[in-house]
């Protein structure tokens, strides 16, 4: 470790202070002082054993070993003999002592200490001045061109976006190819997409492929409490970029500084607006031949200032959407590369089960699977760990330690069996993948379907989704003649989808193809805070009637399916009570068991505690006992449709 000269000065001051402290604390008293006459008398009485003449001091060692001293001033050896000093039989010597540097150092130690303290204080004051002067310097981190860490091979699932930004790499490597045709590279490129889709990763890959300096900064690092600091940092950042051309400037979360000017409940924000103004000036003031490219990322393009998005600043907008099945498989290939996978692992099946997952979700999934395999002392990652990780990412870890009464377990089993059976029978619902009554996260149980990538929803599919969501509620009513609050989440999701069908999708025959309600979004808050009612009370009543009609129709469909397949419903519920989780081939085999499923309802074996009109009185005490806890069943979201 190399020590600077400042550190050496501080160490010297500390050591001097310690030496001074010990000098005064442990200083010895030295020989006793006597007069010169007493020393002469002792010599004449032969009481001196050893004598040393040291400058103006006479050091005496008596016969009994006592050490004494006497001051002789300017007297020398001859003068002492003339005064009567008897040196017969005495071992004596004359010493000429040099300059006493130690004493001088000790004398100057206080001055050195005070001087060092003053020096330290002045240096601190100087550093504070320099810090004040550098307050407006850019805090962008510079990544050199010779240290690439991420390339396009590390990015998957966004092939079209990679193709768009690949032109940036080509331009930085060979500008002449574009300029010979009169083309110019876009001055700015805005990466837009939901969180976790790889916006920052793609920017890092551009820097790694292009082999040029890469400046990275967050939008929030421009904004300070003092007006003008952000603008100064913007100027400094672009000055650094011009000195390192060709290069890339990446501004992450640009919506922190690029929000619409003058918007919000409290008016404008002077510091942020001045910073944005400086960004606008710097981007539009670039020379067309300057090889500086601006990349920015945001997941809120709707709140950005229009002047920032116009051509000449951000010429190109690149959309990074959630990956489709092929993209998810490619992402899983990247994240499983180098990990010991079992032969049973099928990444295509995993890609089918992870519809709606972002790249960050898939990376987390693989990591969770590796952790689970290590926890179970396995040498490879099996399909079991990967599929369980899907559930962990969606709903959280299993809560097997949670104590559930037999009655609650039975109700949950019929609830989930209702979702599974209704979804299995409806034509527009994806294949069933897993049903479980093991609590996970905030859910008491859930049903998961093998979802597909849907870009549009038909009215028949929306109706089937609502019917599947209401399957759990219908099963509780059918078997127990009672409902629980476990279906509250399902009912809420069904109501939201039904309202969208009427007010947003134009799927109501009575109201026709139009939308209702003008949603207002305040960009200062970054979220929707109000909805303007652009229709009358009569239309509002009709909207409610249509929503109610859709939900009631779907509920009748679910009830009809469960009533016609009641033996199969009971069989699935009994298997869930015994095994707690059904999935994959086992679940398919259960539905294909026609012998048990097609038994006539009149001869079907009743469930242990069905509630009919005659047994309603006996069932009520059990329900009252279950209300000891605040909730009979936890909130559930069984159907992932």
Describe the structure.
There is one protein chain. Strand 9 (247-252), helix 9 (270-284) and strand 10 form a beta-alpha-beta unit. 48% of the residues lie in helices and 12% in strands. The chain is elongated. The chain has a 6-stranded mixed beta sheet with strand order 6-8-9-10-7-11. A 5-stranded mixed beta sheet has the order 1-4-3-2-5. The longest helix is centred in the N-terminal third of the chain and has 33 residues, at 101-133. With 641 residues, the chain is of the alpha/beta class.
Summarize the structure.
By secondary structure, the protein is α/β, with parallel strands linked by helices. It has 23 helices and 16 strands. The protein has a six-stranded mixed β-sheet with strand order 6-8-9-10-7-11.
Keywords for this structure?
641 residues; six-stranded mixed beta sheet; 12% strand; disordered C terminus; five-stranded mixed beta sheet; 16 strands; alpha/beta; elongated
- Morphology call: elongated
Q: Share of helix among residues?
A: 40-55%
Distinct helical segment count: 23
Major pleated sheet: 6 strands, mixed
Number of strands: 16
Major sheet: arrangement of strands:
6-8-9-10-7-11
Integer-rounded radius of gyration: 43 Å
Low-confidence blocks of residues: 522-526, 599-641
Portion in strands: 5-15%
Q: Which structural class do the helices and strands define?
A: alpha/beta
Head-to-tail CA distance between termini: 61 Å
- Average pLDDT reading: 76
Secondary-structure map:
Blueprint: H1 5-25, E1 32-34, H2 36-44, E2 48-54, E3 57-62, E4 67-71, H3 77-82, E5 91-95, H4 101-133, E6 141-143, H5 159-173, H6 175-179, E7 188-192, H7 199-210, E8 214-218, H8 229-243, E9 247-252, H9 270-284, E10 292-298, H10 306-309, E11 316-319, H11 325-336, H12 347-353, H13 359-375, H14 383-395, H15 406-425, E12 432-436, E13 446-449, H16 459-469, H17 471-480, H18 488-503, E14 518-522, E15 527-532, H19 537-564, H20 566-579, E16 581-583, H21 584-591, H22 594-597, H23 616-626
Parallel strand pairs: 1-4, 2-5, 7-10, 7-11, 8-9, 9-10
Antiparallel strand pairs: 2-3, 3-4, 6-8, 12-13, 12-16, 14-15
